[in-house]
Write a structure and sequence with these properties.
Helices cover 42% and strands 19% of the residues. GO terms for molecular function: DNA binding; DNA-binding transcription factor activity. Keywords: DNA-binding, Transcription, Transcription regulation.
Length: 261
């Protein structure tokens, strides 16, 4: 028996998951040809995969546009995952922070070298940065990434994996690995992280790690603010609020569910 062969059906499962991830990240509709092109699949394969996902409602066809989007099955699956991970109880906490501060608030997790938005309470102020759950950003350039890395067992390995000169996302992105290491030390010293327009120009953020009983970060609470509303003297206030919210959220996130990879 050849033990190097993947289990039967693995390729089909991966293709189905890739379609779901694509539609999730797209946030709208895509035609069969667009799905095939984005994923490098043949039209016939794409038709079969999308058809199978449509049977149980994970994908829905819009006859008016002849495009596909996530269906009710995906919504129900997401809702079940939120209950399992305690996010239904965490949402009122970040909604409360939004109400107090007027600013957008995220709960994020780590997925390898990226920070992923898991839950969001969007500011209702006219000037705000639009974002959605599922959005991904490099750990090194975000308040969420720093808040998680500062309390992670593999922080040294992560730093060693980076190039000496960090790829810039804005003119404010930290320049080097050493700069990031210093920022992580500062995060631990004050208890919260800061993103000073390092990921998105015109947006500053503060973040706090959601820590388990061993002091390791399982997630982060991040307050996201247009730069014009976040002068330096407001950062400690929002940092303290993020820390308090992260402590509340920690009560509801099961320690064995949201794990780093």
């Amino acid at each position: 028996m050849n033990h190097t062969q993947p289990p039967a059906g693995t390729q089909a499962i991966r293709r189905a998951l890739s379609v779901l991830r694509l539609l999730r990240d797209e946030g709208g509709e895509l035609s069969l040809s667009a799905i095939a092109r984005r994923l490098g699949l043949t039209p016939g394969t794409t038709h079969r995969v999308v058809g199978a996902l449509s049977v149980d409602g994970f994908v829905t066809h819009n006859p008016h546009t002849d495009c596909y989007h996530l269906g009710a099955g995906a919504i129900l699956l997401g809702q079940a995952a939120q209950r399992v991970h305690g996010l239904e109880r965490a949402l009122p906490i970040i909604e409360g922070v939004k109400a107090e501060t007027g600013e957008s608030v995220n709960i994020t997790i780590r997925d390898n070298s990226e920070s992923v938005v898991l839950l969001r309470a969007q500011s209702t102020l006219p000037l705000r940065f639009e974002q959605h759950p599922g959005a991904r950003f490099p750990l090194y350039a975000t308040a969420s990434g720093k808040a998680i890395l500062a309390y992670s067992l593999d922080v040294e390995a992560y730093l060693a994996s980076l190039p000496e000169q960090l790829p810039p996302l804005t003119t404010n992105t930290l320049a080097t690995r050493d700069d990031l290491a210093l920022a992580l030390t500062e995060t631990r010293d004050r208890g919260y992280s800061v993103d000073d327009e390092e990921n998105v120009a015109g947006v500053r953020c503060v973040g706090a790690g959601v820590l388990d009983d061993q002091g390791l970060a399982r997630a982060a609470v991040v307050i996201q603010v247009p730069t014009v509303r976040l002068p330096d003297d407001r950062i400690p206030e929002l940092g303290a609020r993020a820390v308090a919210a992260a402590r509340e959220v920690a009560q509801f996130l099961p320690p064995d569910r949201l794990t780093q990879r």
